[in-house]
Amino acid sequence: MHSSNSIIKFADNTTMVGLITNNDETAYREEVRALRVWCQENHLTLNFNKTNDMIVDFRKQQREHPPIHIDRTVVEKVESYKFLSVHITDKLKWSTYTDSMVKMAQQRLFNLRMLKKFGLSPKTLINFYRCTIESILMGCITAWYGNCSAHNLKALQSVVRSAQHITGGKLHALQDTYIIRCHRKAKKIIKDNNHPSHCLFTPLSSRRRGQYMCIKAGTEILKNSFYLKAIRLLNCHH
């Protein structure tokens, strides 16, 4: 595998990610070809109906990317892709994902109201909320929460407020959970030298032991990302 490519597998789901530099797509296309050959040699069939190609390109002057072909079949280009239940768009915006979460959570609020109507205790209602609603709202929160729009955050928090009104108990705010999980995730990445993001956390001088900086903090894409939030939390806790 070329160093600019990576393959992520989960059960029967395979995702290939390639970094294109200087408009040279050779390594990425060769990786796609190698994957197809590997599948043939191991008696596996690629499902073309579920195979998509998504390009993330923030350059001001974008160029047209020739389509990817697999066995003479053109792979469909898409603007969003659902990866392990998370909707990722080519602009790295989270409205599509948060809208789907709010819709699903609101549907389950109905079940919460019915349980209250049947006379279940507040403790049981809170447990039901945490298992069926909070688990949805908190999924992959370190990846998307920091770059959510104010409108999306308001919609998400309204679900929590509604659930809190129904259960009658104090529920965790999304912001609080986001901060806790960012700090926990950052410490795991720093301890794992093999993590793809380990190189982004650079220790400061010995006089400021235990504090870090993000080596790509100046880039616009990382402006409100998990990485900068994690750096701030690590340095504050120090």
Main attributes?
single chain, 238 residues, alpha+beta, two-stranded antiparallel sheet, two-stranded parallel ribbon, 7 helices, 2-oxoglutarate-dependent dioxygenase activity, Alkylated DNA repair protein AlkB homologue 8 N-terminal domain-containing protein
Question: What would you say this structure looks like, in words?
Answer:
The chain is α+β, with helices and mostly antiparallel strands and 238 residues long. It folds into 3 domains: 5-78, no CATH class; 95-172; 177-237, no CATH class. The chain is built from 7 helices and 10 strands. The longest helix is centred in the middle third of the chain and has 23 residues, at 95-117. The two termini are 39 Å apart.
How many DSSP-defined strands? Answer: 10
Gross geometry: globular
The percent range for strand residues is 5-15%
Radius of gyration from the alpha-carbon trace, in angstroms:
22 Å
Order of helices and strands: EEHEEEEEEHHHHHEEH
Please identify the structural class as seen in this structure.
alpha+beta
Total domain units: 3
* Biggest β-sheet strands, sense, barrel: 2 strands, antiparallel
GO molecular function, one term: 2-oxoglutarate-dependent dioxygenase activity
Protein name: Alkylated DNA repair protein AlkB homologue 8 N-terminal domain-containing protein
InterPro entries: AlkB_hom8_N
Pfam families: ALKBH8_N
